[in-house]
Structure formats: C-alpha cells, structure tokens
Write a structure and sequence with these properties.
By secondary structure, this protein is an alpha+beta fold. Helices cover 31% and strands 30% of the residues. Strands 1-2-3-5-6 form a 5-stranded mixed β-sheet, sandwiched between helices. Strands 4-8-7 form a 3-stranded antiparallel β-sheet. A hairpin with a 5-residue loop joins β5 and β6. The radius of gyration is 14 Å and the shape is globular. It starts with a helix and ends in a 5-residue tail after the last helix.
Length: 131
C-alpha cells in the first residue's frame, strides 16, 4: 500500500475511535494474505463495519472487483456492513454502500465524487450518531 493510503487508513481509524468505535487497520489487506480482509475494521457493540479505504485527488476512484468481492465476503462472514470509505482531496470523508458503486464494462467498480456526495454518508451517520 502506498504511504498516502496508509496515512488515510490511520486517519480514519483515529476518527472512528474519536466517535466511540473500536477500530483497527488490517495491514495485511491488499494482497499480503490470501484471506479477504478490509482495510479498516470497526465496531461499537451495535454496529460493525468493514471498510475499503480509497483516497484520490481526482474526481473518481476505480476499484478492482476482487477488492469489493473480498470486502463483501469478509463482511458477510464477520457480520459487518461493507463500505467504501472515500476521501477526496480537500473534502470530508464519505462512506458508500457497495450497491451504489458504478460497475464498469470490465466488471470493476467506479466511484465518482458526485455520487459519493449524493449517495454516501458522513462518519456520524455511519456510526449511528445521526441520520
């Protein structure tokens, strides 16, 4: 994983702890293991989250279908809700459900900034603090 991606994951973990969720990075995600692992795993006893973290300075994010399939597989086994945590440069974090992602012709996924802000939710809503 790139330095930037690791930094974003650490930032998200810190924000989740500050929102009364236990949270951790799964540094083995991204190919170091054959097991499906999210980038960040968090919970507060009521809500359990498996999050694939993506950050960009452009207007869209492309995600390999294997990463999304692994995220969904892990979340299903663990009993967590799968989300893509998107950090667009100079914008707030947005958390997008898998069903809102656009599927490309090559069966991968795309998340446009506009879609992230229309369909995605903010951290407080993600952790159940607001609707």
């Amino acid at each position: 994983m790139s330095k930037k991606g690791s930094r974003e994951e650490r930032e998200l973990v810190k924000m989740l702890w500050e929102s009364d969720c236990a949270a951790m990075r799964a540094p083995a995600s991204g190919g170091a293991t054959k097991k499906p692992l999210p980038d960040v795993l968090a919970g507060n006893g009521e809500i359990y989250l498996a999050i694939e973290v993506k950050s960009t300075s452009s207007e869209r994010i492309y995600i390999d279908s294997g990463k999304i399939n692994a995220l969904v597989e892990f979340a299903t086994i663990f009993g967590a809700q799968p989300y893509v945590g998107a950090k667009f440069k100079r914008e707030k974090w947005r958390f997008v459900s898998i069903e809102h992602l656009y599927k490309t012709k090559k069966e991968n996924y795309r998340l446009d900034k506009q879609l992230a802000f229309e369909k995605g939710i903010e951290l407080d809503e993600l952790v159940g603090k607001s609707k």
